[in-house]
Amino acid sequence: MTSPTPAVSQNLAMRSIPQEVTGRAGVFAVCFCFLFSIAPHFVNLPIWVIIIVLIALVWRSLQNIGMIGELPKWMLIPLVLFGGVGVFAEYWTIVGRDAGLALLTVMTSFKFLESRRHRDMLILVFLCYFLIATHFLFSQSIPTAVMMFVTLVVITATLITLNQRDDSVSVKKRLQSSARLVTLSVPLMLILFVLVPRIPGPLWGLQSEQRGGVTGLSDRMSPGKISNLIRSNEVAFRVEFEGDIPAQSELYWRGPVMASYDGFSWSQTPRRSRSRPDLVLSAPPVDYTVTLEPNGEHWLLALDIPTRMIKDSIMTGDYQLISKQEINDLKRYSMQSRLAYQIGIDETAGYLATTLEYPDRYNPETLEYGKSLALLFDRPEEIVEEVLKMFREQEYYYTLRPPALGNNSVDEFLFGTRRGFCEHYAGAFALLMRSAGIPARVVTGYQGGEYNQVGNYLIVRQSDAHAWAEVWIENRGWLRVDPTAAVSPSRIENGIDEALADEQSSFRIQNRNPVFGNLLYSWDNLQHSWNDWVLNYDDRKQRNFLQKLDLGIENWSDMIFALVFLLLLVTALYWLIAWYRERPPRPQAYEMMFNRLLKKLSKRGFRKQPAEDTRAFLARLPQGELPQRDQIAAIVELYNRIKYGRHGASARALDTLRSMINSVRI
Amino acid sequence: MLSVALPRPVRRFIDNWFDSHNPPSRDSILLHNRRLYILPTRFGYLFAIMLLLLFLAAINYQNSMAFVLTFMLTSLVIVSLWHTHKNLLGVTVHMQIPRPVFCGESCELKFELSHDNTSRRYAIGIQYLDRPPVYLKLDPAGSAQAKLKIPTHLRGEFWLAGITVFTRYPTGLFHAWGWLKFDLPVLIYPRPATGVTLQHSMIEQYDGQTSTSTIEGDDFAGLREHREGESLRHISWKAYAQGRGLLTKTFQGQARPSLWIDWDLLSQDSTEEKLSLMTALVLAAESEEQKYGLRLPGVLIEQGYGNAHKHNCLQTLAVFRQPAGNHEFRPADD
Fold it and tell me: What is the SS3 assignment for B239?
């Protein structure tokens, strides 16, 4: 005989498992998982990509039930080339958000066709996880986040299916297991989200990509442009004020300022930065924080007029805040404004000349009327007043559905249709002023806002978009003149809803839905908090939050220490709960009683062997040495009846057993 | 995987450490914390790379939801690390004593896994080296059996190594495993040579010996008291029916022919060929109901017959001049 020698060098090798072909349930699960992850993207993908996805899924499913064969291997390379060329033809690039998504989708679909083995399936599942991330390049709203969790459960259930190796487990059970894993991950995720040190990005240059279908102010203003925008009920930004919210009529949110006019539309002049401070302030500051929804442009909205600078932005000579980057993500900034001010008293002659220009070819009646005003009145203020009086006293209407206008749009509007929206009034007014020799420009932005009493902040929607004019008067600088206020005072006093009440267009939550108003305000408040706490949680917010918590977490090493500590704490808690819930069941009451008897007997030297039947043990007990043997025999009988009998452990039987065992004196 | 890259002394140190923490067991192994190991699988590493990419993208785009997703998946990794470990923790593995086989046949190892938790355990695999594993699941407080067939290509007495019990459930990101080292030798007899009959010239045969009063033979000689272990076939049931107790019939006459299977008489060159031939002769002698003994250099087994004797002979042949230091099971090169 040889002696056993220790095994050598087997220890460290972690075994690889030979590749297996995935079972039917696994393939179907992966198919569904891919469909589920990609379906929300169907709106962002070209139709031919969607068709490829569907064909791949149907093909793989039919292949799975044996109706069609596998795709020939040689076809794969042409398909991949076709996909790449197709994406390039569609977008003229293969990088960036949209093209990248299309490419990823097409390639995943082709991967599907050639996947048979366990490894391929796992890679597909990983791609599905990756696909979730691409959703956030399009939207980071609460519904998208909810969808992320649902998708995570589905994908993880697929992963479980692939690793369970038991096709008899129901889909529901798998989803339950997966939901448990995901739920257990949430607290850990929150710890990581709050405490992982945030690095201010970006790390490398970004090709800024505009979000699809963003509505917002544009850099041109022509009749009809703002009234189009106004039909959108989307939130433009939300504002929290530090003090009281100023009156509605004072809430002019300054956006793009337009000084050049081509006879039809107004547009911005090339930006000038402010050369010298020409600001006279005559009101206390108003402090507030704006959470701006992405607008795909550069403008940062602020109350007329902003008096503070923010990082990565410039203030132009016409007091417009311009962000250096396109605003494609939610932006939050603290701002200060003065509602009473004097600006541009020392305006440069060159700029003033620009604000007097207009093409002669269009709108002859308007120009003539303007020139006649200049002859009639001496002071510019009188001319302004005269025009406003005209709007006020003559038959001018404020409407969201003005008639279409031709080439001489201002003439047609002023002397023909007399129906218009704010851009008609602002544009016509500015042109009249220019023709009368008063420097004038158009300012676009928003006016007013809806107060959300649930969260104590102001909601400004695209429907609050507005346009007004500014005129320059010597020694007084640029003055705001809102011709819309002359036509429809309630637009400025009470907001867009009141002004357009007869057109049945409600934008305000309150007016839209009086019954569920508060609920809708709460929902908006939730979105606002979401923006504030989730989407805006960056390095600064993190620092402020941790400071406010006052737990002494100040720098990176503190954060990482706290992070590790909390993660360990929570996992230890999980471990404890699982250990408690899955612990072996306590032995039955009758077993415990019977064990007591056996213990007594073993003290006397009568030990029952583990494998020994109770009756055999009883037979072994010597009558002579143990006078209680008959009593014990009765107990054994009852015990076996309880354990194996039809009536089981009834309370009476247990009581009897207990009293019998207690009465035995050994 | 790892063992390849490490220098020899380091490897030996690690092996010794693992061996001292995984002593072989006689019958059952409880997979407790100190016997369980866990490492990421290849997919685990791939997943980690994906997480890193997601994290960088989240930083770069300052996309909060991408952070949420990254941290969610990171948490999923932590939770599945724990679940994979938990899926194996507390399982008891019991191995039956393996039956000896002839070299070339596959050796069947029978395991029984059990636990007393109320949890359900899935996809617990038992694997021998890199061969396809056998999977089983455990119901709450349940048990399940697994059979592992291992091909053999060397004769001898071996101690099992390289058998693991493992799991990758639920996510496949981690591989938790424990070594199944049992102190039960696996005996592999030499491969019997084919086409061998007892008329082979290499056997020293002694025919015509007679003996008295054995239970074998042709002519009835009488009855004697039954001894424990004797075959029931030779009991005189007639005498038993008459109430005379258990008596065994004895016979007079020719007993089994006896023979010696002798190493020195074989002309083959190699040890293995000789052993193979001797194995075949043992089997032939046994099936032809002869008495036989073994003569090997330094080893002598007296003549005898019966199952125990056959096993003794085959075992002696199996371990005869077994190359030193080669007592582990190795996979056949197939």
Answer: helix
